[in-house]
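Exam revision sheet. Question 4 asks you to relate a sequence to its structure. Input first:
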Amino acid sequence: MGYRLGGPLVLLLGSLSLSCTTQPTQVPSSPSGGGGLYWGKDRRGNPTLIQRGESVLHKSDIEKHHDEHVQDFSSILKQRTQSGLYGLIQIGRGSQTSNRVHDQSYKQGAMKLDMSKLTHIIHVDKEKLIVRAEPLCTMQQLVDATLPHGLLPKVVPEFKHITVGGAIMGAALESTSHAHGQFLDCCASVTLLLPDGRVEVASHTQNVELFHSLSGSYGTLAILLDAHIELQMVAASHVKVTYTLHRDIDSGIEAMQALCASETPPEFVEGLQLPHSEEIVVCQGAFFSPDMGGKLKVSNFDRPGREWYYEHVEDVAKKLRKQAGGGAAQETTRSELIPLREYLFRYDYGAFWMARPMSFSSMHTRLTPSNLMLFAMSSNFPLVRRLFGWLFSTRRLFSMLRLAPQDIVAQRMIIMDVYMPVKEAGGLVKRIRGTVPISTPLWLCPVSGCKDRQEFSPHGHHPGLLINVGIYGRVCDNEGRRYSRELEVYAAAHGGRKMLYSQNFYTEAEFWGRAGDEWKETMFDESKYRRMRSATSAENVLPDLYTKVCESARPPPSDSL
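Answer key, structure tokens:
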């Protein structure tokens, strides 16, 4: 819930410019606090934020503009604190979209801090293999800025519009996560704006506890200003993807585990568990260039009129079944090439399969007029796809999803990612197929656990390999809320955590691990969260995590289990 500001406070706030175009009144006379940052001036006399030991004589215009914005934000929050003003602030993102689908009524009455201009790549350091990016910079921008130099972030989340800030403060993984963890695990450092106006650097060696608390905090501890993201060298133009069809759930997950544990694991590992069966298609990939030899088919997924990737994998599965000769072989394989950039964003059109969140032939699907229209427009018939395919980019689909009433989304959709210890992942998949009437694939993505506990991250409580089970589908019996709630309870009882971008139905006691031993072992440490909130001065300024991701979205008591 937000804090409403009375008339006098609104007038007072109106005297403070709340946009990032505010002209700074003065250069702060002292360092911002910790983090080795201080305010200085460049050779033209302009205020600039300096990391100790860093030269400011040759900063680019983007770097200078970034520092000016940071000073503006810092001054706004410092003046607000000094004036004794309280109440929530929210971040203005401009036209940038988010993948969060839960209720956002907590923003009511909150003061907006306009950060919509922080959308840039600040610098690509080809020697140190680091790219510095602002929080609203997208994955598409990151790839476009680094790939021409033969470089690439170690983890690139699969949707073009996902932002650096969303990937860090939420949670983000991809098919390289078995080797590199989540997106934040591949950041050398981040610069944060604390709610009282302080500017701090956090990393694996500096403000370590705060750094390890960011993933899964959803911007409730601090505000991201920029990130230094680690890069890897890539001397390839394509990814060679090899598909292996496994006839049962356990053997498919065991195969993924074996790939991840091998001495030379593939660069990319993921799986699709197919509906109406126990089959899993394991997809392993390696960087590849055509001049490395061999003649392989090249598949493309970069245009709205093309086949969606999951449709392609289902077609591959049909060919593998035929290749196996009616099921005589336990596993069969097939390989192809995908241009590297297209592989990274292969799920962007269709949003995995959310553009068609149910199967036409499923016994669970009700062929209502609206459903028939959806099937017609999302058909992969070439002419239809050319006409309507542009409607089904992930960015458009999530924008439309957020316009739908939250109650309708809860009733009709199941959208969640659950990180399960690898030994428990098969049980969750079987539970879904046995009790939840969805007719779409399940995404299986291995992710390495944390050496150092990350209290609020979905992978932060488990040191070993986990499997993210992505569940995105439509239920036609309007019982989506109940199914989602049952899966939350099952996952927690078996050591699993959800990404919190989705609708979440935990009670407060469950969320903070106070509802029993199984919840305590899996869920979040409230005492640590409160301590971190106090250290960053976030209380009464940034929304509370439970309120932001759970309380508003939780169903009324009469509808709960």
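Marking note for examiners. Residues 64 and 322 are 60 Å apart (CA to CA).
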